[in-house]
Design a protein that fits this description.
The complex is a heterodimer of chains A (about 210) and B (about 270).
Chain A: H1 9-19, H2 24-33, E1 37-38, H3 39-46, H4 50-62, E2 66-73, E3 76-83, E4 109-112, E5 118-122, E6 129-136, E7 143-148, H5 151-158, E8 168-169, H6 170-176, H7 184-196, E9 200-202
Helix pairs in contact in A: 3-4
Chain B: H1 14-32, H2 35-60, H3 64-84, H4 91-112, H5 120-128, E1 143-147, H6 152-164, E2 169-172, E3 176-180, H7 188-191, E4 203-207, E5 211-215, H8 218-221, H9 230-249, H10 253-262
Helix pairs in contact in B: 1-2, 2-3, 3-4, 5-9, 6-9, 9-10
């Protein structure tokens, strides 16, 4: 992501936010044309508040595009900034965001949690769930958390075992709902989300009892 | 056969209150305006009921409602002519009185033999009969209750049978038929067409591809004395309707009615 040593979507987002400023082009032009420049010089040249210019320059420095050198003038230290690259590349590898399927994840045995307070609404064709809603919070802070489902997620939840029914593995439910294997990541995503919301529960793995005479 | 009822007693008094309100309104009109006004008010109520009965016949094709309509229309005619003419000298009032009495007896026979009774409670009782486990587990999701190999024609024909015998109201779609069992006293919105959306009701869906899906509404689930295992209850309701459909296809529709009657649920319930 970002330059060669990019590290994540957050870095790209920070760079994007800096480049989106309406004064970004003016300040970058100064950095390209000046050997080095201080925040005060850049601010006066671009007609900005010094703090605005300094924040921009500090931001680029933290991302590694500028080199910062401390200089002293009449015992008052300040920074001068130098551009260290002539190219800015914003690259995001979306594969990094793809949910990795760990071994045994499809073997998790799940069912709907009893008295979860969730409201499932049928999709128009009546053979899948359209969305799930659950009220969270109390009193005036009570609000509805509503999740609209994809078609495959809706079919998955349609076949989810009822509360107090026998647990079924995620793989079995996927099979019952005839969901394409390629769609497994989005199924696992909704399972995690609904588990976090307390709508789905997972069977506790029974640990073998230690026997003894 | 002795049957243990799992539903709470029916305490729905809305129908009784409606009738009582009609009589009270007529009495009030009588006191404030006169006997003619009371007769006219009662005639209006009977007339309104007659329209509902005719609508019910049109929706269900249950011939019993023609008799009910004739009784209510005769009663309305009798009261109306009594209000507008001298009741003693008017032969029309007498003729209406005779026909009212005749159709009243016939209606009573139909009611006692449960031929004009909506069977929702019987369906819920039969669904609960094999369920012994308790444990709540209510969910708003429907249960996929398996697959059958009935043809669309068989499903459609059974749906017409179920509607005619007031076992359920049918919603016919392009790919499925949904049967909604309706209890006595709750039929009005279905009859007058106010119930376009059945999804919050108890229903059994027969897909033309063979899929059977079952849903039990929270309101109906709360009618049971105990919190029966919800999955077993839904599964049992699905099995019940598949059994009904099988029996109907074997030409044993009468046995379905016998099973419903055998529960001994009151005609008024």
């Amino acid at each position: 992501m970002t330059r060669e040593n990019a590290a994540g979507l957050r870095t790209a987002a920070r760079l994007g936010a800096l480049l989106a400023k309406d004064y970004a082009e003016r300040l970058l032009a100064l950095l390209v044309n000046y050997k080095d420049i201080s925040a005060s010089e850049a601010a006066s040249r671009a007609n900005l508040h010094i703090q605005t210019a300094q924040d921009f320059l500090e931001g680029l420095t933290e991302l590694g595009y500028l080199d910062r050198r401390e200089v002293s003038e009449r015992k008052r230290p300040y920074y001068r900034y130098t551009l260290v690259t002539s190219r800015m590349t914003l690259e995001v590898n979306l594969d990094d965001l793809k949910r990795r399927r760990s071994s045994g994840e499809l073997d998790r045995r799940i069912r709907e949690k009893a008295n979860a307070g969730a409201n499932f609404t049928l999709a128009r064709d009546g053979e899948a769930i359209g969305h799930v809603a659950k009220w969270t919070g109390e009193g005036r802070g009570r609000k509805e958390r509503r999740i609209n489902l994809t078609e495959s997620q809706g079919r998955f939840l349609y076949h989810l075992p009822f509360p107090n029914a026998k647990f079924l593995s995620v793989a079995d439910i996927i099979r019952r709902a005839r969901i394409d294997d390629q769609l497994t990541p989005e199924i696992l995503d909704i399972v995690d989300e609904l588990e976090a919301l307390g709508i789905i529960e997972e069977e506790l793995q029974s640990t073998p009892q230690r026997g003894g005479l | 056969m002795y049957h243990i009822h799992k539903l709470k007693p029916n305490r729905d008094s809305s129908l009784f209150i409606t009738h009582l309100a009609a009589v009270a309104a007529a009495l009030l009109a009588g006191v404030l305006v006169g006997v003619e006004a009371a007769s006219f008010a009662l005639a209006s109520f009977f007339g309104a009921y007659a329209v509902c009965s005719l609508l019910t016949y049109a929706r269900t094709m249950n011939k019993g409602f023609i008799v009910v309509f004739l009784f209510q229309a005769s009663a309305a005619g009798m009261l109306f002519t009594a209000a507008t003419h001298d009741p003693v000298c008017n032969p029309l009032t007498g003729a209406f009185a005779v026909s009212t009495l005749f159709f009243l007896v016939w209606t009573a026979v139909l009611a006692v033999t449960r031929q004009i009774k909506w069977r929702g409670r019987e369906v819920l009782e039969l669904a609960a009969a094999p369920v012994e486990d308790v444990g709540d587990g209510y969910t708003t999701r429907p249960l996929p209750a398996g697959k059958t190999d009935f043809t669309p024609d068989q499903i459609m024909s059974f749906a017409a049978f179920a509607v005619r015998h007031l076992i359920a109201v049918a919603y016919v779609g392009r790919e499925k038929v949904v049967l909604v069992p309706v209890s006595s006293g709750r039929e009005f919105p279905f009859i007058v067409g106010l119930k376009g959306d059945y999804t919050d009701e108890t229903w059994v869906s027969f897909g033309f591809d063979g899929r059977v899906t079952v849903n039990i509404s929270h309101r109906d689930y709360l009618q049971y004395k105990e919190a029966l295992s919800f999955e077993q209850l839904c599964s049992s309701l699905g099995d019940l309707f598949v059994g009904f459909l099988s029996a109907y296809c074997r030409g044993e529709g009468a046995r379905i009615i016998d099973r419903l009657n055998a529960l001994g649920i009151s005609s008024l319930s």
